[in-house]
């Protein structure tokens, strides 16, 4: 998860490699500490909401803290990162979505104990393109109905 956010910052440009390294290391530390008592390998989905990293009109506090170490403000982060980004960090899997209607893409997956094979990864190329461009899936069309008295 930390490497992914760092890659997004690198792709946006304007941040030196040393700063990016320090950001990634600090974000890894923040995640490790934050998840310390909320990591359940035997029940990977337990606590998943707590482990969700979210940028959506507000900066995720863990990302904000790590960025502060290298002097990046929340305002600058909002310019560099996708407007809507969700990362789910679970035992055996890290996935993300850019945009509310974007595809959920798996960044990391490992076999679970007991020989359970990881599920097939779908849409890798579209997910790869999505994070590079910062685009989300096209928005859905909704029919609106007006009600009057």
TrEMBL record:
GO terms for cellular component: cytoplasm; nucleus. Residues 134-149 have a biased composition (Polar residues). GO terms for biological process: negative regulation of cell population proliferation. SUPFAM superfamilies: BTG domain-like. Gene3D superfamilies: Anti-proliferative protein, N-terminal domain (3.90.640.90). Residues 119-133 have a biased composition (Basic and acidic residues). SMART domains: btg1. This is BTG1 protein. The lineage of its organism: Eukaryota, Metazoa, Chordata, Craniata, Vertebrata.
């Amino acid at each position: 998860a930390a490497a992914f956010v760092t890659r997004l910052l690198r792709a946006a440009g304007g941040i030196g490699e040393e700063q990016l390294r320090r950001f990634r290391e600090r974000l890894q530390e923040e995640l490790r500490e934050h998840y310390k008592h909320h990591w359940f390998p035997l029940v990977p989905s337990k606590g998943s909401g707590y482990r969700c990293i979210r940028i959506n009109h507000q900066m995720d506090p863990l990302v904000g803290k790590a960025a502060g170490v290298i002097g990046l403000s929340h305002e600058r982060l909002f310019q560099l990162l996708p407007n809507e980004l969700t990362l789910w960090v679970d035992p055996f899997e890290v996935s993300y979505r850019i945009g509310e209607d974007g595809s959920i893409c798996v960044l990391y997956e490992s076999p679970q104990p007991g020989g359970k094979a990881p599920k097939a990864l779908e849409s890798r190329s579209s997910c790869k393109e999505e994070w590079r461009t910062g685009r989300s899936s096209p928005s859905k069309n909704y029919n609106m109905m007006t009600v009057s008295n």
